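Thread title: Can someone regenerate the structure for this chain?

I was given the following input by a collaborator and told the matching structure tokens would be attached. They weren't. Posting the sequence so someone can regenerate them.
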Amino acid sequence: MGTESKYQMKVVNGDFGYVLEDVPHLTDYIPQLPTYDNPLRSNPAYSVVKQYFVDMDDTVPQKIVVHKDSQRGVHFRRAGPRQKVYFSSDDVRACIVTCGGLCPGLNTVIREIVHSLDYMYGVDKVLGIEGGYRGFYARNTISLTPKLVNDIHKRGGTILGTSRGGHDTKKIVDSIQDHGINQVYIIGGDGTLKGAAIIYEEIRRRGLKVVVAGIPKTIDNDIPIIDKSFGFDTAVEEAQRAINAAHVEAQSAENGIGVVKLMGRYSGFIAMYATLASRDVDCCLIPESPFFLDGSGGLFEFVKKRLREEGHMVIVIAEGAGQELLAAENSHAGSEQDASGNKLLQDVGLWLSHKIRDHFEKKLMMPITLKYIDPTYMIRAVPSNASDNVYCTILAQSCVHGAMAGYTGFTSGIVNGRQTYLPFNRITVKQNNVVITDRMWARLLASTNQPSFLSTKYIVHMEQRQHPPAQLLDGDDNESETTDLSGRVGTYLKVLDQLPCLSCGQ
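Best answer:
Regenerated them for you:
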């Protein structure tokens, strides 16, 4: 889609190692813009709130666990309403677009953006762009009113529709100009926000007074820096239904095995948290921790051991786990991509189910009863739960406050429990991954009593890479640097055949 620009972030250095990675503002390229008193000054709902307006100098630290001699480190601009705004309410013409896959909470975000613009700032001209990015130039728009969106948070999906791809920068910005839009709210994941950054760049190049604001969306929780992404809590909660069903099926049969595939293309957060929440899972497989099937310390050996001990077991596997094993069997696997440029994954859950059946029933002549459950699209399509509804409300309100205050080229997100504005390029530069040398993964291993499928020597090696001596362990779950998944998996596989397995006690 293009290359990253120096205009996507403003860096301010202060005393004692203080660094502010700030977001752009309309006044960066349009000088002497008029300002207006924030309408919230006369809003009765907020008149009783003390210190409601955020100080212009308020920032939020990226890391809150420090030593007494630590430098102040990286900070981000605190989100919230400002005393002065850069748009007159009557002049605002906003639009909202949703892109990428479905996620619980999309309708809640749409609802709260519309309600915040109307009830807080008196903005009554909000357009909905139908069908993702291509909707700017190939689909209709709909007028979004508080009455129209009032109950949509009770439904799954998105009332605007969505799609992957379709990003044509010139056509999109031309459409924005033709419609007289001056606030663009984009809800989407990594690829969507990269596209939003390019739209911002083109708008800035044309010198338009148009804000581009994003709300990060990924059910996998793989966006870096922010505490979590909306829809994640709902996904973990909904995954419990599938795990419980698999456990009931497995427990009700001799040598019963339940296999549940959950979302997680590159990051295993849903699988990990659903496993920890359930306590009925015997083995959790995620992309960050490669596994192998045959031999000492392999998955088959563990399955056999668990069946002999308990008579049944449940396996949770993230969709991105074991893809290198499928690729080794099928040279064409992993070569195709979807419209967003994501690699099309093979059904690892179905593949694993067949492998287990073949090994135990044909090779070992051991009868088993295996049930495979894939609740992916059921989870994506449900309405958001109470926790995510509240989170979506706060994200949407913060986004609107930032847009009215003239900030652009940003996304809203929670960092260390505080609402912040983050530059586009800070959240699209890498993906958030489970750190398998961190305490949360250790908690999972202790919960399931599964082997790590990695050697002691290799774990020490990975810990040194991901947590060098100068880096703090506490609070860094979302910040450890990760390399390209395919290259990392290749390195894993090269050492697995040479190193002893942790489960063997060596």
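Residues 468-506 have pLDDT under 50 and may be disordered.
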